[in-house]
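Intended use. Records like the one below are meant for learning the mapping from a protein sequence to its folded structure. Do not use them to infer anything beyond what is encoded.
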Amino acid sequence: MNIAWLHGFHIRGGARFALALLACCASDSQATLTLTADGVANGFTLTTVVSGFYGGYGPLGEAILPNGNFITGSYADAHLYIFKDVDGQTLSDAVSALPYTYQTGNPQYVMATAGGQAYGAQVAGGTFVRFANDGSTTPIPGLSGVSAYYGMWGDPANGHLVASSNMGLIDIDPVAGSYRVVNAGVFPDGLTVSPDGKTIYAEVGGNINSYELSTGAFLQTYSGNGHGPDGTGVIQGGTFDGDVIVNNNDGTVTMIDPVTGIQTLIATGGTRGDFVSADTTNGTLFLSQYEQIARLSCGAGCVIGSVPEPATVAMWLFGLGLVGGLARARRK
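Structure written out for the chain above:
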């Protein structure tokens, strides 16, 4: 059974749970996201962070809380889950599970980490909120009349949130409680911001588009090649500096070289990829699937999606073996 068409479709009441249960029992929910030969050769690693979500979408976005745990949502059972930031967990390993109330017709949470804080919103009309360590929420001030659409990312250059909203692409200063419209005519799905804070990459019409963050100007389109691209994250450092990781609805993961346009399939066999989120404590990337959260690492000398928080930089450098000056050969 394939229910990929549910993304973006407004489902209400008991039908929401019925569809989630059907998805839970679908045979394709047992698929396993696995690195391709190119993914292995190019130094990527892929692990499972949390498995056992309740079908349907399962998790969608994640964010790192100030205490180092991470938060994610599961709309099939209407809970916000908090986990330790380690691999190999199931739902029973959650530090806590906090019920939440559906706010939209598609009440999954998009989440992002910015300036050491965790933020989120229910997609397709939700309020932008700040998460406390216990999972409780406080609306970001100064956003009257602004609601979330299908993407949000923490700008590593200034701690802002760049988001898809009912007003188009916007740049939110969550501390000051203000925002500016970057591009009023673009309503993308999963998006990311380059580590230098200059470029937005976002899914639009089945492709990945890039935009200049300062002006909102359109820059370039990269074909989705029928994979159903969704969440995106940018690599910083190492051999693939500047390349864009894309989590696809067809259960694959691709890497795009934005200069040459060359695309490399680095993982296949998943269920349904959706959003991605930066793990700012260690430079890896959370990849959502129907039933699990996976973790993608690009190996020594690089991070994906964001610069790690300052308190963890030294530990991260040691763990990745940067002191030894290891390097990987560029793909041919």
